[in-house]
């Protein structure tokens, strides 16, 4: 998508941080004082996007889902476990579903990396959205699951 967009004349700038959006004028003011002018603004921000808050005129805080995910990203060529290696050799989306938890695996970057997402019940303190993972606790959630 990146290459095709470039062919079509889209200019990319990385490492800049937007601060204020004028959606009518398609003018984005940057934190460093610069500005980006265009034909339209596509705000594909994250959970903490300033664009959404400015477009809707309120902070639109994220709603707690009661879920927490552990996200594990591995380089495929560093995997020594035979069972995991066998799964990785077939780059597909794999999903395991169990009570209160599920696990998803899929490959990234042409199968040179893999992403494992483990969803469990949330147990973070209020107003904490991200924290270092506790691998012992993570393993405990899945300790009575069958093998891969
Ligand atoms: C873009 O927005 C900034 C901040 O509101 C303003 O200072 C600037 O003049 C605008 N630029 C244009 C070309 O309208
Ligand atoms: C993806 O990996 C395959 C096998 O290693 C390779 O043949 C192909 O060129 C790669 N594709 C891209 C877009 O890198």
UniProtKB/TrEMBL annotation:
GO terms for molecular function: monooxygenase activity. SUPFAM superfamilies: FAD-linked reductases, C-terminal domain, Nucleotide-binding domain. InterPro entries: FAD-dep_Monooxygenase_BioMet. Keywords: Monooxygenase, Oxidoreductase. Signal peptide: none annotated. Belongs to the paxM FAD-dependent monooxygenase family. This is FAD-binding domain-containing protein. It comes from Exophiala bonariae. The lineage of its organism: Eukaryota, Fungi, Dikarya, Ascomycota, Pezizomycotina.
